[in-house]
């Protein structure tokens, strides 16, 4: 039985350094806040787009076995890297690798991932998925970005249809066709022809149709573009400001990732001590007031939460 | 078999037809008991007909390897087969080492007010949890545990027609193991989850001082504690409900509006102290104006303290404030609160060197405090530490 996979955030900084730690060179992620082909083109070269969405219940498949959009391309599953998803919590990394391992001509994926691709090249999709969930290297790097704390052991959780499940899907052009790679589908889904250059324009309408499948007020989604390291372009065109901005962004990402890995028990204890010491200095009433204020906040939030659960509130769409 | 049983309760076996999915589970009406005992440090899971004695050769007697098996309520909602003929409270015994499964049904009187025969009462769930915990190789003070679901603040479900005779807890399951502090009083080591955590700490440094290494001990302690709880899906929710009042949470006590002013008024020594609890790499990241952003590994303690010294007071404050405002810090306060509410108080207080009332246990018992009371006890404990300085 393979070891556990923790959940990781769908965040450009997390994904960028995840690939970095796997030995991939010159790749980063950028969040797309709007479905704008022009904006996406500015980030060229674009290797693929990862679409993350959170939807309350599983979608029912078409009764005739066709996908809701596009066509299943079973033959393609042999010629490109496509893995069945075996573990819920691994799906983000799996989506990343779906794009990456199909671009190893254009990207230097590093020796470890190249070995992994070769190792699985003869396998059918389910076995590739198994190989991925069993890969200690990939799992360890993935888990090193796991959501903050050591307190919540999420490795035991399995997804059911009723869960509020996050799902990641990758879109990428391979051999002149725009593919949707979803580990929960039986095969890659083809969405028509697309060259590498056309990809930014071609993928936007496909994404739009996907989003429209869900009631607008019920879906939360996130789009991350996998692109070449923007500092490379900045250096190429001699844009120092852009280079500076990108370096700044990288430092922020590193800061956040360091905090994500960090166990805050000790720090939290010291901060609590510091606050209590201050309150006691101010006087006995200050301490009591501080506790009462906090209790009020907690009560208020509990009441709001109860209201939400009872009614049929609209869930706001994340930008 | 000479050892007395640790727990006994009325239960029947079920036959399972695995030829088709969903499996057809048919209860066997024969009245019986599930019981468990420990011999030569091995836990036994057993079933017998009520008419048979305990050492009858025909009894089911399974030797259990710790953490190989789980005993859980069987959720039949996912299949279309309603249970028929039984009272519907089915538990499954399942193994990591094989795919075999044993199904049992509870034969005590069902307690649902609406007559739903498949409803698991808190007592039913507690019995399941006790069995599951014993299967992981851990000690349980059965009478304490059962007492918690009897007449304790569980709302209106106490119209038990059934007397407690159907569940017998035969005292402290760990009597033969721990010499320890002896006696069966409130300080009894039996069923003391806290001990698990303390053991894990022995090898490490004392809690929490050296940059980067101290807090890791605390995390190990807490993680070991949580691992010991693994098994019954219902456990965390149950403990939280038993807490009664909510009190408050660490995120509500420590919003940035409260914590930022502390930084402003902190002395240089206090700033350095706080920084020592943060990952050293962030000091380098904040400081570096170079364009080299190669993969950051954590610097060693010597270069970390050198870096701290090189920072100006303003720079130190800026870093601390940035951390206090970060979503990562706030998420961890939330998780820490949950861990305390779910019975982690003894381990966490211990790891932080904070004394809490009664060692973080329920008064008069050996079970960790839970829910809002635990959070309150934690804050009070920290307050005492501050006052005593």
TrEMBL record, chain A:
Please give the superkingdom of this protein's source.
Eukaryota
The record, for InterPro entries, names: Papain-like_cys_pep_sf (IPR038765), Peptidase_C12_UCH (IPR001578), Peptidase_C12_UCH_sf (IPR036959), Ubiquitinyl_hydrolase_UCH37 (IPR017390), UCH_C (IPR041507)
Compositional bias per record (Basic and acidic residues), positions renumbered to this chain: 298-311
Q: Name one GO cellular component term.
A: cytoplasm
SUPFAM superfamilies to which the protein is assigned, alphabetical: Cysteine proteinases
The record's region (Disordered) falls at 298-319
What's a Gene Ontology MF term here? cysteine-type deubiquitinase activity
Question: PANTHER family given for it?
Answer: UBIQUITIN CARBOXYL-TERMINAL HYDROLASE, UBIQUITIN CARBOXYL-TERMINAL HYDROLASE ISOZYME L5
Q: Where is the active site?
A: 91 (nucleophile), 167 (proton donor)
Family assignment from sequence similarity = Belongs to the peptidase C12 family.
Q: Which residue intervals define the domain UCH catalytic in the entry?
A: 4-228
Q: Broadest EC class?
A: hydrolase
For the biological process aspect of GO, one term held by this record is: ubiquitin-dependent protein catabolic process
Site label Transition state stabilizer, positions:
85
What protein name applies here?
A: Ubiquitin carboxyl-terminal hydrolase
UniProtKB/TrEMBL annotation, chain B:
Q: Name one GO molecular function term.
A: proteasome binding
Give the record's keywords alphabetically: Cytoplasm, Nucleus, Proteasome
InterPro entries (alphabetical)? Rpn13/ADRM1 (IPR006773), Rpn13/ADRM1_Pru (IPR044868), Rpn13/ADRM1_Pru_sf (IPR038633), RPN13_DEUBAD_sf (IPR038108)
**Residues of the Pru domain:** 1-138
Any Pfam family hit: Rpn13_ADRM1_Pru
Cellular location(s):
Cytoplasm; Nucleus
Q: Name one GO cellular component term.
A: nucleus
* Main location (coarse class): cytoplasm
Q: Is DNA-binding among the key words of this record?
A: no
Extract the ranges annotated as region (Disordered).
Answer: 145-216
Signal peptide (from-to): none
Q: Which residue stretches does the UniProt record annotate as biased composition, category Acidic residues?
A: 157-166
Q: Where is the composition biased (Gly residues)?
A: 200-211
Q: What is this protein called?
A: Pru domain-containing protein
């Amino acid at each position: 039985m393979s070891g556990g996979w923790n959940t990781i955030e769908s965040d450009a900084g997390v994904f960028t350094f995840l690939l970095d730690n796997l030995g991939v060179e010159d790749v980063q992620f950028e969040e797309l806040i709007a479905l704008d082909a022009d904006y996406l083109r500015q980030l060229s070269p674009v290797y693929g787009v990862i679409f993350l969405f959170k939807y309350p219940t599983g979608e029912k498949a078409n009764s005739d076995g066709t996908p809701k959009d596009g066509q299943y391309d079973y033959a393609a599953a042999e010629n490109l890297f496509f893995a069945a998803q075996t573990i819920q919590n691994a799906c983000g990394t799996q989506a990343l690798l779906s794009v990456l391992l199909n671009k190893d001509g254009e990207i230097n994926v590093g020796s470890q991932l190249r070995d992994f691709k070769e190792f699985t090249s003869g396998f059918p999709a389910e076995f590739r998925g198994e190989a991925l969930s069993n890969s200690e290297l990939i799992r360890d790097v993935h888990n090193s970005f796991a959501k903050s704390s050591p307190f919540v052991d999420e490795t035991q959780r399995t997804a059911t249809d009723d869960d509020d499940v996050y799902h990641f899907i990758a879109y990428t052009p391979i051999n002149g066709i725009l593919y949707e790679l979803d580990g929960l589908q039986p095969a890659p889904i083809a969405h028509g022809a697309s060259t590498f250059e056309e990809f930014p324009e071609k993928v936007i309408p496909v994404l739009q149709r996907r989003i429209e499948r869900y009631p607008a007020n019920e879906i939360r989604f996130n789009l991350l573009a996998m692109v070449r390291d923007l500092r490379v372009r900045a250096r190429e065109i001699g844009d120092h400001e852009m280079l500076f901005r990108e370096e700044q962004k990288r430092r922020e990402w590193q800061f956040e990732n360091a905090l994500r890995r960090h166990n805050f028990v000790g720090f939290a204890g010291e901060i609590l001590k510091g606050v209590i010491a201050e309150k006691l200095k101010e006087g006995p009433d200050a301490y009591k007031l501080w506790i009462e204020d906090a209790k009020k906040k907690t009560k208020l939030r509990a009441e709001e939460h109860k209201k939400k659960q009872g009614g049929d509130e609209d869930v706001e769409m994340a930008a | 078999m000479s050892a007395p049983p640790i727990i006994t309760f009325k239960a029947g076996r079920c036959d399972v037809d695995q030829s088709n999915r969903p499996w057809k589970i048919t209860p066997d009406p024969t009245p019986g008991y599930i019981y468990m005992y420990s011999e030569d440090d091995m836990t036994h899971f057993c079933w017998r007909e009520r008419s048979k004695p305990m050492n009858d050769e025909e009894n089911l007697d399974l030797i259990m390897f710790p953490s190989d098996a789980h005993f859980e309520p069987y959720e039949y909602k996912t299949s279309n087969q309603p249970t028929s003929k039984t009272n519907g409270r089915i538990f499954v015994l399942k193994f990591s080492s094989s795919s075999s499964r044993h199904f049992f049904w509870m034969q005590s009187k069902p307690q649902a007010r609406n007559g739903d025969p498949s409803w698991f009462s808190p007592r039913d769930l507690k019995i399941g949890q006790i069995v599951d915990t014993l299967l992981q190789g851990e000690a349980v003070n059965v009478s304490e545990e059962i007492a918690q679901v009897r007449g304790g603040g569980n709302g209106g479900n106490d119209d038990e027609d059934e007397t407690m005779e159907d569940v017998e807890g035969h005292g402290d399951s760990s009597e033969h193991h721990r010499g320890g502090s002896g006696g069966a009083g409130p300080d009894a080591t039996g069923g003391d989850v806290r001990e698990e955590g303390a053991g894990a700490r022995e090898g490490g440094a004392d809690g929490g001082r050296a940059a980067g290494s101290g807090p890791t001990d605390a995390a190990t302690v807490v993680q070991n504690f949580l691992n010991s709880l693994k098994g019954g899906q219902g456990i965390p929710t149950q403990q939280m409900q038993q807490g009664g009042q909510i009190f408050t949470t660490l995120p509500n006590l420590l919003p940035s509006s409260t914590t930022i002013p502390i930084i402003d008024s902190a002395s240089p020594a206090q700033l350095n102290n706080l920084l020592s609890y943060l990952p050293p790499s962030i000091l380098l990241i904040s400081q570096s104006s170079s364009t080299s952003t190669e993969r950051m590994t954590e610097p060693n303690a010597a270069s970390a303290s050198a870096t701290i010294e090189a920072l100006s007071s303003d720079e130190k404050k800026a870093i601390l404030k940035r951390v206090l405002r970060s979503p990562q810090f706030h998420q961890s306060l939330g998780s820490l609160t949950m861990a305390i509410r779910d019975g982690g108080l003894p381990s966490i207080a211990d790891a932080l060197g904070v004394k809490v009332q009664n060692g973080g246990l329920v008064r008069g018992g050996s079970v960790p405090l839970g829910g809002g009371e635990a959070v309150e006890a934690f804050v009070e404990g920290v307050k005492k530490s501050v006052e005593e300085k």
